[in-house]
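for the writeup, i need someone to sanity check this before i put it in the appendix. the sequnce is what the collaborator sent (i think, or maybe the updated version? ugh). structure was predicted straight from it, no edits. if anything looks off just tell me and ill rerun, i have time this weekend
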Amino acid sequence: MTSSQTSKKQEKRQADLPPTAWAVLGLLSFPGERTGYELKKWADASLRFFYWSPAISQIYAELRRLEELGYAASARSGPEEARAKRRYAITEAGRAALAGWARDTAEAGPPVLKHGLLLRVWLGHLAEPERLRTMVEEHLERTRGELAAVREAMEHAGEVPQWAFPALALRWSERQHLAELELGEALLADLAGLASHLAADLAAGAGPAAPGGAFAAGRQADGDAPTPG
């Protein structure tokens, strides 16, 4: 295989790297060497608040891939440690590749929202209204807990000059969690308004509603979709 063919093969492998690989390489781009377990802890304390946190098995799989590409290097700890550990570090080639990927805004793509609670609200015509309200309240409680964790991570990041940009991402995440709380409270108000509307329809003699909603009757009977399109 010629050097040109080798280079093209390397470029293709780089282009095929999933976001998880770049995220793991990004964790390695900060000063120091880390084990896979330490990288997982870092992901849980930063990435998960605005992207997601890969499983430990994904981290190790990506570390192997990054080593094969020459973007990361590892070494086992010496006999001074009671339990041998493999620590990873980014290479110069890996830092250059990561910098190129980070500059390529065309690859960023739109944010993807997969809101499990809203999927259940969408199916509210099959649920009991009280259960829906409980789910929203539980979601708000979890979000408050996540907000507290974000603020703790922000405080920790603020103590390390090299983490200035991760601190900005965490600040964005704080605002996002605050917005999520506001949206959740508005959803509770919407559910209460819908419950009042359905109760009024029932009192006016509209007949019993399906569990939790009104989509089971009315316009749905002719097969129309509830929204245009």
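Strands lie at 72-76, 86-90. The CA atoms of residues 59 and 199 lie 52 Å apart.
thx in advance!!
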